[in-house]
Write a structure and sequence with these properties.
411 residues; alpha/beta; Nucleotidyltransferase, domain 5; two-stranded antiparallel sheet; 29% helix; globular
Length: 411
């Protein structure tokens, strides 16, 4: 968990972080965490923060969390079961049920979606035992507001929310969804219509504004400074996430494309299974560091790799059987390393070309995030492939993005 506090001029005043125990997976496809760990961690960070600033002077607050993580609350307002995490895939049968009733352009008829997990909860617990369904950050808001149910459009997307029509869609009726147990959706960046009564006991002012937040990945994009059509954001982590800003929403599940609300516009794109995980599987940390220094962007190998470790791809190809390609393999390990980086850049290029075919504003700048954004040789390779600047983001912390969101709500 991370905190970021901005001063009255919008500059970073304090940054804090605190680790909490990672709950072991319940099975090969099941991943859970105890939500109480998050609150205990929050309290520890508050104690640290209180040594640096008077909590009563803080004017606004916003929170982000992982989308797709879902909690069911008991009649006592406590988690009925451990939080089912964003990467938990137990709800396979429930995802198939969603596919029988959802429209073709619904992008989250998958086991990892919060909607599939909601159906799993309903099939394993009595409806009278469950009073509400909340995402990770929604549960924190529940504590902040003394038991009110709020969420934002981005976190609610994977629970089925229609961010274009700004409502829970009618087709969810066929799934017997208890809409009265779902949170009220407040647009990202808007104050919640309630006080932060749950935080007064910690020393916060009763006038503290709680601002509707977003998902962790979108919070990082707020931090990056991307703000108008023509800007795109590539996250170069274990996987490659590529999203571009556009005036209106576009959905193409056959290509893994979905849309998220963003500052009055939309983030269009998706996530590929290529990325840094391929490098870590094939090269040691020492090799990655050594071969990064040996990259030669002036002499591209152009072997046209599509680097994947396993069958299955999400975007810009959406197929569970797609196998990619990392052949032919050069004799030199350093050349093989460069060929893979070029291949990831080729996939990135395909991703933005795919978005442009669906009408997304052509990309003029790709703001780069993640550890891969710190590799200057790879940046030079990507700038050649994408034919546009690919500068590293000045700020990448999701916590900073949320602090900025809370700050702007005061303006």
């Amino acid at each position: 968990m991370r905190f970021c506090l901005l001063d009255v001029n919008g500059q970073i005043h304090t940054q804090l972080h605190q680790s909490y125990p990672f709950t072991a997976a319940a099975g090969t496809t099941e991943h859970e965490q105890d939500p109480h760990l998050w609150w205990q961690c929050f309290e520890k960070l508050l104690q640290q923060l209180a040594t640096r600033v008077k909590l009563q002077d803080i004017q606004s607050l916003a929170v982000d969390g992982t989308s797709g993580t879902l909690i069911a609350l008991s009649r006592q307002g406590q988690p009925l079961h451990a939080a089912i995490m964003y990467n938990d895939a137990r709800a396979l049968a429930q995802s198939h049920l969603i596919q029988t009733v959802c429209p073709d352009d619904f992008a989250f008829a998958v086991p990892e979606s919060a909607l599939a997990k909601l159906l799993w909860y309903q099939q394993h617990y009595s409806s009278t035992d469950i009073t509400a369904f909340l995402s990770q950050s929604d549960w924190l808001l529940y504590q902040f507001t003394g038991g009110k149910l709020y969420s934002d459009p981005n976190n609610a997307l994977k629970m089925g929310y229609d961010a274009v029509a700004m409502q829970w869609p009618d087709w969810m009726d066929a799934l017997q969804i208890p809409f009265h147990k779902l949170p009220q959706i407040i647009p990202t960046g808007k104050p919640l219509p309630t006080t932060a009564s749950g935080l007064v006991q910690y020393g916060f002012s009763a006038d503290l504004m709680v601002v509707s937040g977003t998902t962790d990945s979108t919070a990082a994009i707020y931090a990056s400074g991307a703000h108008h059509p023509g800007d795109a954001i590539s996250s170069l982590g274990s996987t490659l996430v590529a999203k571009a800003i556009h005036h209106h929403a576009i959905s193409a599940p056959d290509y893994g494309i979905y849309s998220q609300p963003y500052q009055g516009m939309w983030l269009i794109g998706g996530g590929s299974n290529t990325g840094g995980a391929v490098l870590k599987a094939l090269f040691s940390s020492q090799e990655i560091e050594q071969y990064s220094r040996q990259l030669n962007p002036q002499r591209l190998l152009n072997l046209h790799y599509y680097p994947l470790l396993h069958a299955g791809e999400r975007f810009p190809v959406s197929s569970p059987t797609f196998t990619g390609n990392m052949q032919p393999q050069p004799a030199s390990r350093s050349a093989f390393f460069q060929a893979i980086l070029e291949g990831i850049a080729d996939v990135e290029k395909q991703a933005y070309d795919c978005l442009e075919r669906f009408g997304v504003t052509p990309v003029k700048r790709v703001i780069s995030m993640g550890r891969g954004a710190l590799n200057p040789g790879w940046q030079a390779i990507r700038e050649q492939k994408l034919a546009c600047p690919c500068p590293p983001a000045a700020q990448t912390e999701a916590a900073y993005g949320m602090a900025l969101l809370a700050y702007k709500a005061l303006q």
